[in-house]
Write a structure and sequence with these properties.
Length: 249
């Protein structure tokens, strides 16, 4: 299974800066696109402008959320149908920041995932534990609940494991931490979806940096990375996307 590198720009980027960043990435991404699936998820306001450029260079266009309904009186929201109409291929759902600040429940995220698939989008569902849950030994029950309640039983998409205690802290989990979690997550996914233990691609996210990327991507069970802050620098994102390719080509 090809690894995937997703850049989540979050709420960053006006049109000029966003286009400049996308052009810099697109101009240099070549080898990574040949060996890994690369996706950029800009703010909604940039989606229309970036679509032709990314398509031309073989880079996927992602979105950072979608509504659970196909259409309706939901002021300020964006539907999966609207995203598909713009050429979006992937949509990030259930990011810890949305779970916290928008009070998104597992049931809500599952509904969004179902709607995304209905319109041909690949859902990227985020799961992860807090520092307190990790310290209290509650991480595995919490992750199990997130997976079994957020993912439909017929789920076709990607899971992104983001330890909340690592997001924005500048410190990624150790290779041992990541490998242990990957073994666990693949087992839970296999049980929930009734598939083999590596059928679903699981990404790692949480302060991924160019200097850490090769070692993270080399961990068994890691299907790629979801990159936050480092995706806002062309040099950093390219370093991550191309990490370790010389040893895996």
């Amino acid at each position: 299974m090809r690894q995937m590198i997703i850049g989540n720009w979050k709420m960053h980027g006006l049109r000029g800066d966003g286009m400049t960043l996308a052009r810099e990435i697109a101009a240099a991404i070549g080898p990574a696109c040949a060996q890994r699936d690369v996706v950029l998820a800009p703010p909604f306001t940039l989606t229309h402008y970036l679509a032709p450029l990314l398509r031309e260079h073989g880079i996927g266009l992602g979105a950072q959320d979608c509504h659970a309904e196909a259409e309706g009186a939901y002021t300020g929201d964006i539907s999966a149908a609207m995203l598909a109409d713009l050429g979006v291929s992937h949509v990030i759902l259930g990011h810890s920041e949305r779970r916290e600040h928008h009070h998104e429940t597992n049931a809500r995220i599952r509904h969004k995932a179902q709607r995304a698939r209905e319109f041909g989008l690949c859902p990227v569902i985020c799961v992860g534990e807090s520092a307190r849950q990790k310290e209290d030994g509650q991480a595995e029950p919490w992750l199990t609940e997130q997976i079994t309640q957020s993912l439909p039983s017929d789920f076709e998409g990607i899971v992104a494991y983001e330890p909340i205690w690592a997001i924005g802290t500048g410190t990624a989990a150790t290779q041992e931490d990541i490998e242990s979690r990957m073994v666990f997550l693949h087992r839970v996914l296999a049980d929930h979806l009734e598939t083999d233990d590596k059928a679903t691609r699981v990404l790692y996210g949480g302060s991924v940096k160019p200097e850490d990327a090769a070692s993270i991507l080399a961990v068994s069970g890691v299907g790629g990375v979801l990159v936050g802050g480092a995706s806002l620098s062309a040099g950093s994102f390219l370093g991550i996307a191309q990490a370790g390719l010389s040893s895996t080509s």
